[in-house]
Amino acid sequence: MILPTGPGVRVDSGVYPGFEVSPYYDSLISKLVVSGETRGEAILRMRRALDEYKIIGIRTNIPFHQRMMESTSFMAGRYDTRYVEERFSLELADETREDLSEIAAILATLVAHRRTQRAAHIIQRNERDTSNWKWVGRWERMQR
User: Fold this and answer.
1) How many domains does the chain have?
2) What is the spatial distance between Cα 73 and Cα 92, in angstroms, rounded to a whole number?
3) What's the rounded Cα separation, in Å, for the pair 50 and 73?
4) What is the pLDDT along the chain (144 residues), one digit of tens a residue?
5) Do 42 and 72 sit in the same domain of this protein?
6) 133 inside domain
7) DSSP labels for the chain?
8) Contact 4, 52 (CB under 8 A)
9) Whole-angstrom Cα distance, residue 69 to residue 31?
């Protein structure tokens, strides 16, 4: 487990790295709280904190909360008591996050491959690799 940290970020939890969670665990194993001077600042902190939060071994609702923080209507403050039921599902959030991680892995592989290709090229100097000033100076000396 990797907990998010930083100014305005707090995690309340009874579990710790290496803690074994029973299959009959309470679904609230930890609570992430952020604060900011503005709503926008708090949302940005929450997005960063959710990206930093890593829990391995059990299914969490972190992907759901990440989707919520990316929702334009939520960011604009346009929501009501039925907002979550009508617009979100945990299954869809899990699928979306997995797809994005696969895309990120593919892009990282392509970038690494391109860098390797560039490093493999042999760069040769041009026939005339000196400045025009040097060429004129040489020409003038030869004319003397």
Assistant:
1) 2
2) 18
3) 19
4) 889 999 999 999 988 878 888 877 777 889 999 999 999 999 999 999 999 999 888 888 899 899 999 998 898 898 888 888 888 765 655 555 555 677 777 888 888 888 877 766 666 556 666 677 777 888 888 887
5) yes
6) no
7) -B---STTEEEEES--TTPPPPTT--S-SEEEEE--SSHHHHHHHHHHHHHH-B--SS--SHHHHHHHHH-HHHHTT---TTHHHHH--HHHHHHHHHHHHHHHHHHHHHHHHHHHHHHHSPP---SS-S-HHHHHHHHHHHH-
8) yes
9) 16
130, part of any domain: no
Give the domain range for residue 102. 89-121
Shared-domain flag, residues 74 and 97: no
Residue 132 falls inside a structural domain: no
What gap in Å lies between CA 107 and CA 114, rounded to an integer? Answer: 11
The phi and psi torsions of 3 (rounded to 5 degrees) equal: -90, 140
Q: Torsion over CA of 62, 64, 68 and 70, rounded to 10 degrees?
A: 80
